[in-house]
From TrEMBL:
SUPFAM superfamilies: Glyceraldehyde-3-phosphate dehydrogenase-like, C-terminal domain, NAD(P)-binding Rossmann-fold domains
The organism of origin for this protein: Eremomyces bilateralis CBS 781.70
InterPro entries the UniProt entry points to: Gfo/Idh/MocA-like_OxRdtase_N (IPR000683), Gfo/Idh/MocA_domain (IPR050984), GFO_IDH_MocA-like_dom (IPR055170), NAD(P)-bd_dom_sf (IPR036291)
Protein name (database record): D-xylose 1-dehydrogenase (NADP(+), D-xylono-1,5-lactone-forming)
Domain Gfo/Idh/MocA-like oxidoreductase N-terminal: 9-137
Catalysis performed (reactions): D-xylose + NADP(+) = D-xylono-1,5-lactone + NADPH + H(+)
All copies of domain GFO/IDH/MocA-like oxidoreductase, residue ranges: 149-286
GO molecular function: D-xylose 1-dehydrogenase (NADP+) activity; nucleotide binding
Amino acid sequence: MTDSKPYTIRWGILATGGIAQKFTKDLVLDPSTRSVSDVSHTVVAAASRSQERAQEFLTSCGCPSTAKAYGDYASLAADPDVDIVYVATPHSHHYQNARLCLEAGKHVLCEKALTVNAAQARKLVEIARERKVFLMEAQWTRYFPLAVELRKMVSEGKIGTVHRVFADLSIGDSGTPEAKWGVENRMVNVDLAGGAMLDLGIYSILWVFQFLYHIQPPQHRLPPNVVSQLTKYPNTGADELTSLIMSFPPLNSHGIATTGLRVSFDPDNKGTAGPAVRIQGTKGEIQVFGPIFRPTRFRVIPLEGFTSVEFADETREIPGQGMFWEADECARCLRDGKLESETLPLEESLVMMDVMDQVRQQNGLVYPEKIETLEYPLPGF
Ligand SMILES: NC(=O)c1ccc[n+]([C@@H]2O[C@H](COP(=O)([O-])OP(=O)(O)OC[C@H]3O[C@@H](n4cnc5c(N)ncnc54)[C@H](OP(=O)(O)O)[C@@H]3O)[C@@H](O)[C@H]2O)c1
């Protein structure tokens, strides 16, 4: 006889900004709406730099009335009723905030980019392993059924050997970046590790990694060589247009990942510009339509003589953003006693952070010492 009760995990939400709201609203949805019955979620606390904001957040996200509202992050990390903390501060703060929770023995799902630099990410991984707690970077896109299906198709050889992947996430629009983002905005503010690459480019990089790195057997996964160009936002020095060419051993397959704040992957907002990801193999190509953080459609174009087929993700009709897929992965990992996700092993997050470090080194992009440092704890975080 099987136990039909879902395995439920108790979440604490650290910060109450835009993505924390989307994630938390997804968490409180009934998992049966996405045909999930083995795991479920409950939000038991939220923390903000303002207790009042934490309370408003819990109410507006539809969390249980028993959930606790904290006016500082340390109280959340110390709450014995919290199993796992979702860290949703700007990336500048991930190292300090995720470390706070790991040191307190909490499991952590930390927003992307995991940290500002690879050294900070390595330190978090080291602490998570020492404390034997779960840690995962919130690359939610990887957990979409569509992404799972594409990795399966490509690893089964549907388009042959993949030699090149193009991926773009650029969100320029008719307004100039200066009009859209003032210097204080986290997208361009270097004190908050602003810039296109850590915020958007990571999606282009993760699409490349899924097919040129992740689907290799673990013992064959090798970091790419990287060359890059980066243009700085005039008013702050954050990156506003960044392009990488990565060459992945052993075939030296190329991954071209681009990101920008001045041009768009979808300028007319109607999809006219075509796919945002192209996965090119010896037997054909798979094209994925953007936005690549939440893709809903792809097309398979086999070699000449065959008909191309277009697929829509049926799960796109499900209520919510789709952030619940990664939350479900966290719950299953905790249930099964896994300290990391096989879909995004910590090692892979570290290699991706190394790639972004190299791009910054090649182009002279350094963030303020207070957010690059390994020193912990720092006041003001
Ligand atoms: N997965 C996705 O699709 C996705 C989408 C957007 C962003 N993100 C990631 O999520 C993180 C947060 O992004 P967001 O768009 O939610 O940002 P946001 O709306 O600006 O929210 C960030 C929150 O962090 C807290 N915070 C603490 N110290 C701060 C400081 N010095 N300045 C500003 N905020 C501070 C604030 O919460 P309190 O005031 O409550 O303390 C604030 O509301 C980033 O790492 C970003 O890359 C992911």
